[in-house]
Write a structure and sequence with these properties.
By secondary structure, the chain is α/β, with parallel strands linked by helices. The protein has helices at 20-29, 48-55, 73-80, 91-98, 105-112, 125-129, 131-142, 168-179, 214-225, 253-264, 306-313, 329-339, 380-392, and strands spanning 6-11, 33-38, 66-68, 71-72, 83-89, 117-121, 146-147, 151-154, 160-164, 189-194, 199-200, 206-207, 229-234, 246-249, 269-272, 288-291, 294-297, 318-325, 344-349, 361-362, 365-367, 372-374, 378-379. The longest helix is centred in the last third of the chain and has 13 residues, at 380-392.
């Protein structure tokens, strides 16, 4: 996702410097061009050779190294960067950057870049909470820099508290959010539903379905990466929600209905990917569940039709629903498109290999009033982007 992107990693003299090697490796796996600048103190913790082997680029420490006779290295790298991340960021580098001090390779290059700058602080809890450090971080944010909040836990000094550098995977997500995709959904507010709702029978038992939530969560992630303000209304799922989205946990179909409709007026797009447990007299035999001791009558009432409500009440919103069929997929999905007054139906068949519940792939046909687009088998992340592309006419 980061092909043709350049990330500069600044590594300072915190014990957490060893973790940055994992971040560099993860970026290279995303086909990113990674350049590392180390302070001299950082070299006491991890060697420049480690980063050179991981990235394939020279690791810079000295200010006056040169690439060519006419190209000063700190200026060249500063201009090349698409993103600049200092991880770990000590109190020292935060103070330098906040006050315009440029006295080594890292601080000098940082001063010369116009790329987005991210700091991932790592230090003792008392140093982190020191008013001077806090003021420096606020000052940097005022200059347009991004401060990633430190994690809490056991620190290298033995103390327990805030001050840990976030894990490399967390830092990678910040970089992906900034660089992975064009922000063609910036300014859009999107609601995505995901997962399987649960309808309680009694305090012990409930009825649900086989949805894992993978497709809905993939859509939420894709929309976030493309700059949208995403609200994920999540029922029971098998996967964790992505970072940088507002996640609303619900249980029943009514919970989901209320969560979506209360936010509907202010949104631009709703994508209903959740599988609602709709158990009504029409689809539960004899309106009962059998027990060995006899019949247990269940009070059945129709769950509220979220997609139909949205279609009936939309003003400017774009509405996308899903249709999972076992037969007559196109015919049934087109009927659903009209009946629900939706703008798009993403349809698939449970009989198609690689589609349906629990898989990491999907085989979709995207249906609007004037077209049908059949997609080949692809990952759910790829399918999510195809759905968003169709919505905005790409």
């Amino acid at each position: 996702m980061l092909k043709n992107k350049t990330v500069v990693l600044g590594v300072t003299g915190s014990i957490a410097a060893y973790k940055t090697a994992s971040l560099a490796s993860a970026l290279v796996k995303q086909h990113c061009d990674v350049h590392v600048i180390m302070t001299k103190n950082a070299c006491e913790i991890i060697t420049p050779l480690t980063f050179e082997r991981l990235t394939g680029n020279k690791c810079m420490v000295e200010t006056f190294d040169k690439i060519t006779a006419f190209e000063v290295e700190h200026i060249a790298i500063a201009q090349k960067a698409d993103l600049f991340m200092i991880a770990p960021a000590t109190a020292n580098i935060l103070g330098k950057a906040a006050n315009g001090i440029a006295d080594d390779m890292l601080s000098t290059t940082l001063m010369a870049t116009k790329a987005p700058v991210y700091f991932a602080p790592a230090m003792n809890t008392n140093m982190y909470l020191n008013p001077v450090t806090q003021d420096n971080m606020k000052k940097l944010e005022g200059y347009g820099c991004h401060i990633i909040e430190a994690a809490s836990g056991r620190l290298a000094c033995g103390d327990v508290g805030i001050g840990k550098m976030p894990e490399p995977e967390v830092l990678l997500q910040y970089i992906l959010k900034e660089l992975a995709f064009e922000k063609d959904l910036a300014g859009k507010k999107i609601i995505v539903t995901a997962g399987a709702t649960c309808e309680d029978i009694d305090p012990v038992r409930y009825i649900t379905n086989r949805s894992t939530g993978k497709m809905g969560i993939a859509i939420a992630r894709a929309a976030m990466l493309r700059g949208a303000d995403v609200t994920l209304v999540k029922a029971k799922t098998d996967v964790e929600p992505p970072m940088f989205v507002d996640t609303v946990d619900v249980r029943s179909a009514e919970d989901m209905f209320n969560a979506v409709t209360s936010r509907f007026e202010d949104c631009d797009i709703v994508i209903k990917a959740a599988a609602v447990a709709d158990y009504t007299p029409a689809n539960v035999a004899d309106e009962k569940i059998k027990k060995s001791e006899g019949d247990l009558s269940i009070p059945l009432g129709r769950t509220k039709d979220i997609l139909k409500y949205l279609g009936e009440h939309k003003t400017h919103q774009y509405i996308c629903g899903f249709s999972m069929e076992t037969e007559n997929m196109l015919e049934n999905s087109r009927k659903k498109l009209g009946k629900k007054n939706a703008d798009m139906i993403a349809a698939n068949s449970l009989r198609t290999a690689g589609a349906g519940f629990g898989t990491d792939t999907n085989v979709l046909t995207l249906i609007t009033r004037d077209k049908e687009v059949e997609l080949p088998i692809m990952s759910k992340d790829e399918a999510a982007h195809k759905i968003l592309d169709m919505m905005i006419g790409k």
